[in-house]
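Blackboard transcription, Thursday session:
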Amino acid sequence: MFAYYLDLGLRSLRRNPALTALMVLAIGFGVAASMITYSVFRAVSGNPIPDKSAQLFTPQIDAWGPQQNLKGEPAEALNYIDAMALLRAHEAKRQTLLYPVALSVLPGGNRELPVAVSGYAVGSDFFPMFEVPFRYGGAWRAQDDDARAADVVISDELNQKLFRGADSTGRTINLGGHDYRVVGVTNHWNPRPRFYDLFSTSGFADEPDFYLPYSRALDLRMRTNGSNSCRGKLAYTGWDDYLQSNCVWITAWVELDNAAAVARYHRFLEAYAADQQKAGRFAWPPNVRLRDVMQWLDHEHVVPPESRISLAVALGFFLICLINTVGLLLAKFLRRAGEIGVRRALGASRREIYTQYLIEAGTVGLAGGVLGLLLTAVGVAGVGILFPPQIAQLAQLDVSLVGLTLIVAIAATVCAAFYPSWRAAHVQPAWQLKSS
Amino acid sequence: MNLQIRPILTALRRHKAGTALIALQIALTLAIVCNALFIMHARLSNLSEPSGVDEAAVFVIQNQWAVDRPTPQIDAQVQADLLALRQLPSVRDAAPSTGYPLQGGGWDNFVTMTPDQVQPTTDAAVYYSDEHLLDTLGLRLVAGRNFRPDEVTEMGTQQVVIPPVVIVSQALADRLYPDGSALGKSFYAMGLTPSTIVGIVDTLHRQGVDQWNQSYAGQSLIWPARADDSRGIYYIVRAKPGQLAAAMREAPKALYAQSRLRIISPKDGIQDYAAIRHKVFDSDRGLAILMGIICAVLLAITAAGIVGLTSFWVGQRRKQIGVRRALGATRRDILNYFLTENFLISTGGVLLGVLLALLINGWMITQFETARLSLAYVAAGVVMLLLLGQGAVLAPALRASRVSPVEATRPV
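(Written on the board underneath:)
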């Protein structure tokens, strides 16, 4: 029966090519607009580290006080004093500090000019915490953090540039005038949004070139290449003063396995802030936060407003296309009231009429879906016109998007056809036969 | 013209579903088009935000130092670099800076009127540069004077320098001293000592175009100091008229001739203002284009939908039209009937649409902190959709008016 109804449906669609084309176009454009904007939204709102996002937390401590903090919220990063205190306390299973640094690779080999590289000063726990994949070697050891070792982990891309992709572990590179020993080479690793550094990036930066021990970076007085935010009067005249200032520039992350550990760490943060209050450093009660990855992404508004606005408008657009389709299907189905009357009089049940027209609508949906797919492919390829390159490159037409496009198109059209089909099924056969 | 509204309403009652669908479609289209056009206009107006810069002649070099050096050495290098840049035949002037208008992460300081004030009065974008900045950017000095060379100091890495003199933008001057008496007055910008306003420039945009500091838009200050940061420095260069391309070619060569221990990224180390403007307003332009496309397609689809449904009604009512014609109705009467019918439906639709447009705008204000929808957009949208409806219904209505009275005698 399905094949027969399908055939009837196709015949009927061929009878009014203009009307059919209009419906297919509406569905196609509607679904394509939704899918293009959704593909971008999906990329920017996704979970960058799905299997661990609930175990990774970033602690915040209010060192600015109620008059200068962010409308009651603590600063989005830590100052040096608090960051080091958290690290030394070692209250979590794993913990790291991090801040972005920019350096240069000095000329050597066939390069005449220095090359700019950017990376992060991190702790050894950074690599296992964030599941950084290695091609060669691995992270430096925890004792290298304490020893302020001149170790470095470089990205696959930098390894290609400097060592033509060979296993470079154990070799030396010169960064900013200082020698470092390569201990590991990562595989491509650039989680987006870059949840671990939303203080200094908007979440969609290029892959970092290197990671070096924060203890070494601090020893060399490397300034952050990222954001720095201060309150009150600034009076520092050098590195040591700066470290004692209330300027925030370091992000901390801790790994906590279960709710009990989270609660314990939260109590520890409260206790630390209370101690600072007692010591007279803070003139306000503890104001701390401990957000996991998804809460942090949400708090930092990592999804660009443009992406949300365009998705919302595109969905509204799709809704209008569907209402348009309801109207056209209604016109199309009821025009054939006479035909329906004959079929009903010859014994077709309402249910059969209903099925027949839903199938007909399904074919419109399928055609709209295929058109939508083509338009989506064009749109995703051209999305660079609409969004900045860092974000546009995230939008991809993959199998799941293709499937989703077709399913949404067909399901939406069939839903739109419920009412017109119901009206068709309730055509009174006697009336139709009489009036012909 | 004899408008027969009552019979039209009676007839519409027999097509409740179709009528409701057209009205709903018009309502939603109005709601979305109003808001989309409003967003589009807001974003397009961002594109032409004034920077205060002579954009046709100015470019920026992002100069990163390759090795860590003590401040005096960096300062000597900076001075030598600037001299070399200013001597280029295609260059009018050059200045060192900690940032440049429109792009970059930005440097902001809170501003207070007294040294012990905790809640800041306002916020200002900070530029550290020398006495060449005004001429280099092409800023218009509207009051006071430029810096004197002896006022320009050096500022080492991680060192706070609060010079005693400052040049502010007109917007900051007005914010701090609304009575227009800013020149010669002083304020504190996160320093222990005050800075006295010696000059006021017309327009100087902050670095970056992020939304968060929109409420401080246009409030900028310039302090006289060369920022000898160990990481790097921006050189802002103004070419002589018509020599921008030549200057952009010669400048890096001149700098590398001074020293090779620097990095000027081949990708975006040198940018002119056309490139900067293009890049920073990427997302604004993209969203405006998307809204434009969606509006156009939406209006087309709504118009086509009206054509489709009205054609169906005309087809359905051929016999009745024939009867009316046989009873003496003119072609014009039939045409008017369908135009009026559409006008009634459209009016219902736009009334609902205005409500929806305001609701959607209310939601957008809470979600995206957009501005309140101006009623001009709603009014324009209403007129546009009413005209669209009349235009769309014209073809089927004309076809209806050509139905011959003979149809009355034929079976359906």
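Lecturer's comment: Chain A touches chain B through 71 residues (CB under 8 Å).
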